[in-house]
Amino acid sequence: MMRNQIWTSFDKWRASRRKNVERVESDMHAYQHTALQFIRDNPFCALFVDLGLGKTVTAMTAAAEFLMNGEVNKVLIIAPLKVANKTWPDEFSVWEHTCCMNYQVLTGDAKTRAQAIKSKAAIHIINRENVEWLVDQWRTKWPYDMVIIDESSAFKDHTTKRFKALKNVRKYMKRMVQLTATPAAESYLHLFAQIYLLDQGERLGKTVTSYREKYFTQNRWSMKWDLRPGAKEEITSKIQDICLVMKAEDYLDMKQPQHIESPVYLSDAEMSRYNAMEEDFLTEVIQEDGESLVIEAETAATLASKLLQMASGFIYHSERELVNGKPKLNRTAHQLHDHKMDALEALLEQLDGENVMIVYHFKPTLERLLARFPDAVAMDKSGDAVTPWNKGKIKKLLVHPQSAGHGLNLQKGGRVMIFYDIPWSLETYQQVIGRLHRQGQTRQVLLYHLVAKGTADEKVVVRLKEKRDTQEWLFQRLKRLARKRQKEREAMEDML
Q1: What pLDDT does 306 receive?
Q2: Chain mean pLDDT for the chain
């Protein structure tokens, strides 16, 4: 009788875990099985896999396999916060071969995390901001012998606490899988830290200093590090054996997104004010009380930001004050014009009822969008807007690319994305596009860019293309080397 009760309880538990299952392992694509085999063959590897190609379930399947056969004992998944809270748990539940895997999410406040870390679940999922905390909890008793880093580009900076923490426990790991579509979106310098976590300096050197000295020269005027002639080829040759590249156009029957520039024209007075800031690092605005205020850009970086603000219709004035003996920076946004807002409204009328995702960067832009379009919904920190958006219940979704740019599946809610503020970062730009342009999207994605003519908006668009071309060269080079390696392997097998 007792045995029957145990089996009845188990059957009920299994049925509860299977209620959300939508797919079985045989539904995985052939290219996903190729990636899975790559993970099996390379204990420490990176999948530079395009957005929407299903790298989450690929890594998840590998983790389940290694746990089942006893190759690893405990798995840690590191991901952006929303992805840790929603995407990974959702993926575990919809696949038959992973729905019964026990996992524990380690997010929330310190008290919640301290309790969750005690879980005996074989898989723990944590947001990247808490990696240092997790390492500090375990130290030399680090239990995770397999680590999956979702969006490994978050570990591109060797000076961050999260990188240093993970570096300290790297010796306790048997396996690591890095997942990203944007490993070097901004610079080849960003490859060093990611590759170091995989091979501990075997391929690109033990220190970032030696890496820079070998492959880069420093521009004496801009102080930026530029690649030496031939350095790109040498770097890719060294890392190609542990990096797998997969591009969406090679595997999915999907049209590439259509990039559409929607020009915005400032008045002569607005352009005069803009040019004054660009040339003299300062400009004048009239406050609500009628008083004149001079706003100054103290550095070139500040100037670049203020020029983009002016293109979008406002400008920050910053003042420092002492609060309890500590300096505090107060910023006040001064509205300059509504040209972009008017252009957006006209564009929405042309789209005639299409659900749209509007991308903003600056907080005043969000406030102005919500004021102009009361029916708009801003993406929240917890990701509660994801489900209603995908069900078509949100007509205008406002997203910040850094909070909604990684891991969220938003392709079911619409196909139109409008960039109100255009980000400098290629990684941020490509990742947010990947929320719509990914597997499961049934229509061509339309990307509208509100570009204020004659302003920094135009420069950002050009710079994004240059960065995109550089990263694409990396991908194509790694793919060519992989094909060459495969041919050499086949030739060797034929000889044997």
Answers
A1: 92
A2: 88
